[in-house]
Amino acid sequence: MITTKTMTLAANYSDLPVRAGYAVNINDIEIALFKVTNGRVYAIENHSPHPKGGVLTEGLVSGEYVYCPVYDWKISLVDGKVQAPDTGQVKTFQVEVEGDNVYIII
Predict the structure, then answer these.
(1) Is this model's pTM higher than 0.90 or not?
(2) Which spans in 13-106 are helix H?
(3) Domain contains 42
(4) Which H or E element spans position 25?
């Protein structure tokens, strides 16, 4: 099976706040963008993996982690894994920054 990846313009780099979430919808997928203090941008699905959810763009960012605002789960922005003692994972998306354009590859 051949999988086609699409690079979609998601935001302007200059519009992304540092250490705060920025929500975008691409192909009916709600994605959270996070620009961390070193300038890197990460994209993950915008819902906590907890059964009752939580909007991750409303969470606190520390280093390369976001904390679910509802359940305080620590989630890696790099690989989407929930940190122990909790378990779970959110989907991550590849990000490309070209000039002031931030693209997500789906």
Answers:
(1) yes
(2) none
(3) yes
(4) strand 21-26
